């Protein structure tokens, strides 16, 4: 009978041992994740919460804060410049989404084993490693109506950066150059992980060209496409450096966007609370787009 009773005892002892091992594994996982979680909390979560709190105050950065409630948001939604900046952000978003398909086209062209292709890849990737200030200065000289390359091409000067009708399109065109290079790198990385067996089977079935791309290659590139779209959307919504270098938000605030409008109010006019309200609205817009695309991707995978 003692032998019969020892079997449950052994099972209980084994469970305790397994539970102790599981606790140790969870503790080890927590210790490994703790530094990253602390960094995210300090440099991401806390600034977001601080900006949200600050948006309900009037503050010039030096004197005491005064509670303003929703006054900053009410003023923001009644400011004509806000709607100009929002319209320009939408324009940036629509035209900037040309970067992923252009990056894919360049990646498909460069994804071949021919002599000298590495040099060509480095030339296509070069715009991405350039500073935004450098890109802005290069295109400012390109658009210059007195000596720019655009004048030599067209035969006459066009004040792209001085005309409210063209300035936003000119800056977006300049920003597409490095963004396309970044999407190209993402797709080149994705093309190296394609399932060769599926591609070979599709070729044996007679698939080629557009059929191969649409039904075999692109479905395997969905995670890469998702990353390219998310990064491009974030880049479009936080566009700042090229606007600061090329137009300064002008002429007459016609090329300003939410990120530059936020900077303008905080740095030039010392309206920190109002600037924080702009930052909160911009963050909310980003989250809407990112959550939408994330849910769409997860639904497609399921």
UniProtKB/TrEMBL annotation:
Domain ABC transmembrane type-1: 85-293
Transmembrane segments: 27-49, 90-110, 122-143, 166-188, 272-292
Key words of the record: Cell membrane, Membrane, Transmembrane, Transmembrane helix, Transport
Record GO biological process: transmembrane transport
PROSITE patterns registered for this protein in UniProt: ABC_TM1 (PS50928)
Entry's localization field: Cell membrane
Alphabetical list of InterPro entries matching this protein: ABC_transporter_permease, MetI-like, MetI-like_sf
Membrane topology of this protein: Multi-pass membrane protein
Classification via Gene3D superfamilies: MetI-like (1.10.3720.10)
Database matches in Pfam families: BPD_transp_1
One Gene Ontology CC term in the entry: plasma membrane
Matches recorded under SUPFAM superfamilies: MalF N-terminal region-like, MetI-like
Family statement: Belongs to the binding-protein-dependent transport system permease family.
Protein name: Sugar ABC transporter permease
